[in-house]
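dude i think i finally got it to work??
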Amino acid sequence: MLLAAVAAMRDDPRGDQFDVVVTARDLTPGTELTADDVRLQRRGAVSVPEGAQTHIEEVVGATLAGPARRGEVLTDVRLLGSRLAESAAGPDARIVPIPLTDAAVADLVRAGDVVDIVAAPVDDDKDARLIATGAVVVLVSAQETGMATRGGRVVLVALPDAAARSVAGTALVEAVTLTLH
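look at this
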C-alpha cells in the first residue's frame, strides 16, 4: 500500500522529456544540413543541453560548424550563425571567411583554435602586417567542399565587428595568412 502511494505521488517520468534535433549519421564540418541528416529524438530534460534545437525545419539548410557524431544533439552553437559568433568572440562578433592560398596552413588549424591574421606585403620592400588578433576559428573548409577560392581553402573565424570588417576588406585585395597561438 505504501509503495502504491509513493508511486502515485511521483512525477510522470515521461513528462520531463523533449523532442530535440539529433544527427542521423556522422557528419563533417561544413555540411549543409538536409532533412536526411537530422531527425527528432525524445530525450530526458536532464540530458538536453542549453540551446538544443527542437524543430527540424530550423536546422535544414544551416551549416554545421564542426564534426558531429550520429545521435548528437544539435545546439545553436554547433551551427554557423550569430549564436556561434557570439559564443566564440563576444556579443558584437561576426564570422569572416579567410581565403588561404597555402593549404598547409588550413591543414594545421582546427575549430576552436585562436589565431592572428596577417596580411602579406603588397610591395617587396614592406613587412607583413598584423590586421587582427585573437580570432577564433569556427570552420575549416575541406578541399572538396566547393568553398575553395583562389586555388586554396577557406577558414571561417569569429571576430568583433570592427576587426571583422577590416579583415574582410583586406582579404578581398591582399593575400592573408594565419599565425597560431
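The chain has five helices and seven strands.
im so relieved honestly
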